[in-house]
Amino acid sequence: MSRLDRFAAACLLTCIAAASLLTPSASAEDEPVSLRILAINDFHGNLKPPSSGIRIADPADPTRTSVVPAGGAEHMASLVKLLSDGQPNTIFVAAGDLIGASPLLSAMFHDEPTIESMSQMGLALSAVGNHEFDEGKDELLRMQNGGCHPTDGCRGPQPFTGATFHYLAASTFLKGTDKTVFPPYEIRTFEDIPVAFIGLTLKGTAGIISPASSAGLDFRNEAESINALIPELKAKGVQAIVVLIHEGGWPSGGMNECPGLSGPIVDIVKDLDSAVDIVISGHTHQAYVCTIDKRLVTSGDKFGTLVTTIDVKLDRTTRDVISATATNMVVDTALPKDAAQTALIASYETLAAPLANQPAGVITQPLSRLPNASGESALGDVIADAQLAATSAAAKGGAVIAMTNPGGIRTDLARRDDGAVSYADVFASQPFRNQLMTLTLSGADIKAALEQQWLDPARPRILQISRGFTYAFDAKQPAGARIDAASMMLDGKRIDPTASYRVTLNNYLALGGDGFTAFKSGRDPVIGPYDDEALFAYLKTNSPLSPPPRDRIVNKAQ
Questions:
Q1: Cα(474)–Cα(300) distance, rounded to whole angstroms?
Q2: In which band, very low, low, confident or very high, does the pLDDT at 30 lie, cut at 50, 70 and 90?
Q3: Among 284, 426, 472, 502, whose Cα sits 20 to 30 Å from the Cα of 179?
Q4: Model confidence pTM above 0.70
Q5: Residue 11 pLDDT level (bands cut at 50, 70, 90)
Q6: Do the domain assignments include residue 351?
Q7: Strand 553-555 versus strand 217-219 pairing type
C-alpha cells in the first residue's frame, strides 16, 4: 500500500466513524459517551520528519519490515485534525519528553518552537518526562509560563508566552515538601462525565539527568504516587481515570501488538489501583498496544512518527470506562502539511539557517549509533576520537583517553548523496551540548567506572571509548568482575591500577550521570569545548571520514 493509499484509507475510516455518530438512535440518552484520546510520547523537538522514519510491517509480506518516512509537526497536525473530525469528544495528550535532546531547529531556541508547535496543534495535557528537566526546574516552569531565557534572552521571531497545554507531575515533589512541581492531575468533562488524567515521570529520573538539574527535586515511586490520588479523585466523583506516564517497556511485535512485553511498565501497571482504566506510556521509544492486568496500555514510538488513537466508551450511569481500544497510526509524510505549522517552522528556520547550514565535512558512509555485540558503535567511536583530539594537547587537558555515554548519542550521521555533513547534522547526534572535562583518574578508577556499565544488567550502558584504549568484558561474571583487568590496554600497554591517566568526559558523566559515580573521583579538571563543537572540528579536520573498525571493546561471550 502506497503512502497516498494509506492516507486515503485513514480518511475513509474517519469518515465511516463520523457517519456512524450521526446515525439517529431511539435511545441516545442511554448510549455510552464516546471519547477519543489522541496521544504522543517522546517527540523530542522533532519539528521536521526525522531521517530515521519508522520501521513497520510490510503490508505485502507481514514477515518483513520496511522503513517509511514519517513524522514532522506539519503532518502530525493534519493527522490530529483528521482523527478529531466528526468526533464529539476528543482530547490530545502526551506522555512526556516533548522537549530535550532536540534537533538544532528546536534546541537552538531552548525548545520554545516545540512548545509553540504543540500549543498550536491543540495539545491539552502532558506528563513531564525526564528530558523536561534537562535544564532544571526553573527552565521547565518557563516552558509552561513563558518569558525570555534568563541567559540568552528573547531569540525567537515572536515573544515566548509559554505553553497553552498543561504539564502534570504527580510524582515530582519539591524536596522536603508534599508540593508537586506541577499539578498531579487534571479533570476534563465530556458530556457531564468527569475523566481524570494523571501525569508523571519515572522514579529514576534523577539518575538520568544531571545532578544540577535534579537539585531540589524528589522523584517518587510511580504506582504509589498514582494510587495515593485515587481516594481524592473518587471524592470528586471521578470514576474514569487515565494515566500519562513517562516510563515504558520493550515489546517483540509490531506497533499494534504486545507479545512478550517486558520492562518497568509491566510491574507498575500491575501495582496500580483497580480504579485506573487506561495507561499511556513512553520513555522507551517503543510502539505497542497491550492489555496488562485488564487495562489498556499504549506507547507511540518516538520523534512524532505515530499518533495513538484511543477510543473510549463511558457509561452515563456509572460514569466509568466500559471499553477502550487503541491503534497506533503512522504520521505519514504523504499527509498534507498544516499551513500554520509550516509558517511557524519557517520563521525559526530563517533564524537558525546561518548556523545550521555551516559545513562540517564529508563522510564516506553513514555513521551509525547502533552498537555491535560488544556495545560499540561507529558513531560512538568517532565521537570519542573527536573528544580525545579536542583535549589531548597539554594546554587543553593532556587527555590520553576519552569516553562518552551512549545515551548522549541521539541519532545517526546519515550520508547524503554528496556525503556532506552540516552543523545541524552534528548537533542532531549530540544535542545535549555537554561541556568536555579532562580529569585525572587512576587505573583502578577507570576499571570501577567500566564495571558500572552493568548497574542494570538487563540494559547495560556501554561507554564509547577513544582509539588506543581497549579492553574485554564478560557480562556473565558477577558484579565487579565483568571487566578483565589484564585486557585493559592503552596503546598496547597494560593499564596500571595505581597509575594516573588524564581522561576526557562530558560534564554529565564527570558529575556521576547515568550512575557512573566512579568518575566523581576525578581531580585536576580542565574545562574543554562543548561536545558538538569537538565533533564539528574533528569532521572538518579529518574529511573525508570513514567509519573506524569497531574493535576497541571485546565481548568474551561472543
A1: 35
A2: confident
A3: 284
A4: yes
A5: very low
A6: no
A7: unpaired
Residues pairing with 523 in the sheet: 440
The residue type at 257: E
Read off the C-alpha cell for 225: 504516587
- Answer whether 499's CB lies under 8 Å from 490's CB: no
Which residues, in sequence order, are CB contacts of 292 under 8 Å at separation 6+? 261, 265, 266, 269, 270, 279
Virtual torsion, Cα 454, 456, 461, 465, nearest 10 deg: -20
- CA atoms of 226 and 231, how far apart (whole Å): 10
Last residue in a domain, options 291, 318, 344:
344
Task: Count the domains in the chain.
Answer: 2
Q: Which of 303, 431, 402, 410 shows the shortest CA–CA distance to 367?
A: 410
**Cell numbers found for residue 109:** 531556541
Q: What is the CATH number of the domain that holds 443?
A: 3.90.780.10
pLDDT at residue 22 greater than cutoff 60: no
Look up the domain containing 515 and give its range.
358-555
User: In 3-state terms, the chain is what percent helix, strand and coil (to 5)?
Assistant: 30, 30, 40
C-alpha distance from residue 317 to each of 70, 260, 295, 296, 321 (Å):
41, 37, 21, 22, 11
Neighbours of 5 (CB within 10 A): 12
Q: Does residue 166 sit within a domain?
A: yes
> What pLDDT does 21 receive?
40
User: SS3 string of 76-131?
Assistant: HHHHHHHHHCCCCCEEEEECCCCCCCCCHHHHCCCCHHHHHHHHHHCCCEEECCHH
CA atoms within 13 A on the CB side of 520: 10
Burial class (CB in 10 A: 0-12, 13-18, 19+), 344: buried
Tell me if 252 is assigned to some domain. Answer: yes
Residue 529 CB contacts under 8 Å (≥ 6 apart), including other chains: 390, 435, 436, 537
Please state whether the peptide bond connecting residue 211 to the residue before it is cis, i.e. omega within 30 degrees of 0.
Answer: no
Does residue 409 contact residue 508 with C-beta atoms inside 8 Å?
no
